[in-house]
From TrEMBL:
It comes from the Eukaryota. SUPFAM superfamilies: SAM/Pointed domain. Probable component of a protein-conducting channel made of HP30-1, HP30-2 and HP20 that mediates the import of transit sequence-less proteins into the chloroplastic inner membrane. Interacts with CEQORH. It comes from Urochloa decumbens. Pfam families: SAM_1, Tim17. This is SAM domain-containing protein.
Length: 266
């Protein structure tokens, strides 16, 4: 009996993974919760890294990530068609106007590769332009959102080939339609996500912290009464007084230096 216990102890010591598993079972740890927390930590670190990069690097990374996401979504949508191609046959001797309408329908009904390409271009352009507009304007607003939608819609029209026989005109009209829809959604989103009246003085602060992946320190700002009006005046000592660690302090101060509106307000 004693030999069996000693053998188990030796086995646990010899196998770190087995020991960790045993500790997890005794402590009631949640592997899924730990994995989720790890993913969030990596995401926050990635956002913080992106915020410290030059505008061209951030725009390139945002475009690439958006293109990958859009390509995956487009490939999934394209795989739903039965033969992997266009379900719309080309009519013989069709006039240019009819062919243009057919091209528009085919742009949203191609096979996996066609849809992956179209959506990769659309979402990648939207993400990249949004990133550039946010860095230039210092905030996410309806103008930047509509500019990104216009660019993504125009490129989607050109790449998908839905602009026959006037690709330039069709690209402009498609981009304008995308911009109008995006502007409407942006206004609706702002209306329903409007913060409570007591939090209106922290809207810009909240947006900055969320952009940096540091939203958990919003309570520190509120506790120290560091609202939007104090952002241009923030110093390292002020952030230290509200118990914000050194790393996040550096990111916050660097973001304030990059914001043209906050720099002008000093």
């Amino acid at each position: 009996m004693t030999d069996g216990k000693q053998g188990s102890a030796v086995a646990l010591k010899a196998s770190p993974s087995a020991a960790a598993m045993a500790r997890g079972l005794r402590g009631g740890s949640n592997p899924l919760g730990e994995w989720t927390a790890r993913v969030k930590e990596i995401e926050a670190g990635f956002r913080a890294w992106m915020a410290t990069q030059p505008i061209h690097v951030e725009a390139a990374v945002a475009t690439a990530v958006g293109a990958v996401q859009g390509g995956a979504l487009g490939g999934l949508m394209g795989s739903l068609s039965a033969d992997g191609g266009s379900p719309f046959p080309t009519p013989p001797n069709a006039n240019p106007q009819a062919m243009a309408s057919l091209k528009q329908a085919q742009a949203l009904a191609g096979g996996p590769l066609v849809q992956a390409r179209n959506f990769a271009v659309m979402t990648g352009a939207n993400a990249g332009i949004s990133c550039v507009m946010r860095r230039i304007r210092g905030q996410e607003d309806i103008q930047g959102s509509m500019a990104a939608a216009f660019g993504s819609g125009a490129l989607f029209s050109i790449v998908s080939g839905m602009g026959t026989p006037n690709p330039v005109v069709n690209a402009i009209t498609t981009g304008a339609a995308f911009a109008v829809f995006q502007g409407g959604f942006f206004m609706i989103g702002q209306r329903f996500s409007k913060p409570a009246s007591e939090d209106t003085y922290y809207s810009r602060t909240r947006s900055m912290l969320h952009q940096l992946g540091l939203e958990k320190y919003e309570k520190n700002f509120k506790k120290g009464l560091l609202n939007d009006q104090t952002l241009p005046l923030l110093t390292d000592s002020a952030l230290r007084d509200v118990k914000i660690p050194p790393g996040p302090r550096l990111l916050i101060l660097d973001q304030i230096k990059r914001d043209p509106e906050l720099v002008r307000a000093k």
